[in-house]
Amino acid sequence: MPTTLTAFADVTTSDSALRRFLHGLPGVDTVGLEARAASLGTRSIKTTAKAYAIDLAISMIDLTTLEGADTPGKVRALSAKAVNPDPTDRTTPMTAAVCVYPDMVATAKAALNGADVKVASVATTFPAGRAALPVKLADTADAVAAGADEIDMVIDRGAFLAGRYLDTYELIKAVKEACVRPDGTAARLKVIFETGELSTYDNIRRASWIGMLAGADFIKTSTGKVGVNATPANTLLMLEAVRDFREQTGIQIGVKPAGGIRTTKDAIKFLVLVNETVGEDWLSNHWFRFGASSLLNDLLMQRQKLSTGRYSGPDYVTVD
């Protein structure tokens, strides 16, 4: 199996070449895609498998606060929760990451104090991404310099929807380069498409390929700031894209649905999608994440119920 992008070297040499490639991808069967996503969402799992799925989902969460009213105290509290989600049960897994704005990266890093939880930072003038390239790169560099382990960037949806595919590709490449630290290590890059604004499944497939060709470590559905965010159908489509990309290049790319995933039932549906579409290789927080805040509380309540036989209720978990 090849392990490079050599086979696609000519695809990104010009805007016209990239357009030919993207518009040559197979069209998405909307009815088939949505029917398969709905069908997989009806799968039931046994109690022992549910306990495993809950712990796995907790370990995949990027615990997120992205509000204008964020304070250092709120970020410190969120970081403490990421490390110890349920103080009454120390067997509860840590979350994968804490996701904050760039100016809160240093606060989160200090609060985590070396715990095995990543600090993810949104960048490139999240969520709209409407700024000049130097501003976006400075935004990224500031977050990396402050200690971010991961960068969640947004593409310029206006450029993409106007058909400026090579501009979108070059933006991602430039941000990828800005993720590299002076010592040669790099923050992992998640590329957010804002699928709710891309209008069609064909566009989501094309955006996925642009992101992967440009060096994304993860492709991510949404910012969580628009009306339509992660859905089983758009996540399934992106899982199919990373599966096909690995088959052709040998390179594995992660997937992160974000926004609107609030319940344990929702999370398990997405884990079934992963298992049935790309398999066990993606069933770890290195390759699959949930962008969420309220999801963790529901997972904790369901975990407590499985452990004690009683449903504790929302008063027994912290409100973020």
Tally of helical runs: 12
Shape: globular
Derived structural class = alpha/beta
Mean pLDDT: 94
Radius of gyration: 19 Å
> Which consecutive residue ranges, at least 5 long each, have pLDDT under 50?
none
Percentage of residues in helical conformation:
40-55%
Strand order of the largest sheet: 7-6-5-4-3-2-1-8
Provide the succession of SSEs: HHHEHEHEHEHHEHEHEHEH
Main sheet specs: 8 strands, parallel
Q: Total number of β-strand segments?
A: 8
Distance between the termini: 45 Å
Percent of sequence in beta strands = 5-15%
Short description:
Helix content is 45%, strand content 10%. It is built from twelve helices and eight strands. The mean pLDDT is 94.
Task: Name the descriptors.
12 helices; 320 residues; alpha/beta; globular
Describe the structure.
The protein is α/β, with parallel strands linked by helices and 320 residues long. 45% of the residues lie in helices and 10% in strands. It has twelve helices and eight strands. The protein has an eight-stranded parallel beta sheet with strand order 7-6-5-4-3-2-1-8. Helix 2 (30-40) packs across helix 10 and helix 4 (72-83) runs parallel beside helix 5 (105-112). The longest helix has 18 residues, at 232-249. The chain starts with 14 loop residues before the first helix and ends in a 12-residue tail after the last helix. The mean pLDDT is 94.
